[in-house]
Specification:
The structure is a single chain. The chain is 53% helix and 5% strand. The model has no long low-confidence stretch (mean pLDDT 92). β1 and β2 form a beta hairpin. 2% of the residues are buried. α1 packs across α2. It is elongated and about 55 Å long. It contains 7 helices and 2 strands, in the order ααββααααα. A two-stranded antiparallel ribbon has the order 1-2. The two termini are 34 Å apart. The longest helix is centred in the last third of the chain and has 17 residues. By secondary structure, it is mostly helical.
Length: 123
Amino acid sequence: MEVKTVGIKEIAEALEVPQPFLGKIMQDLVRRDILSSVKGPNGGFYITEQTLAIPVIKVVEAVDGLGAFQKCVLGLHQCSGVQPCPLHAQVKPYRDVLFQSLSDQKIGDLKEELASGKVFVRT
């Protein structure tokens, strides 16, 4: 079965991001088995059926880490349910819902939404 790959230059242009910046992210996603790649003149990146089943939160974790879901919104070290900051009670429910939503949504779901034309990755 022939795999359709997309080159880093094409992806960077479509997303309007610097190629070196994107290249580092893409290689990290390959190392974490979120993306696959082929080297060479016809090489590039591609996704597999297994990739489509990966939760979106795994991509967030690979690119930015999960700190936004764990750290205090005010940057306090002691913030917790026991010692909450002034915004803890307001932020935590939204953070928890977003984390759960990204955990439930699969990469394949995003692919389907993009293919339907309902959502876009570029204006």
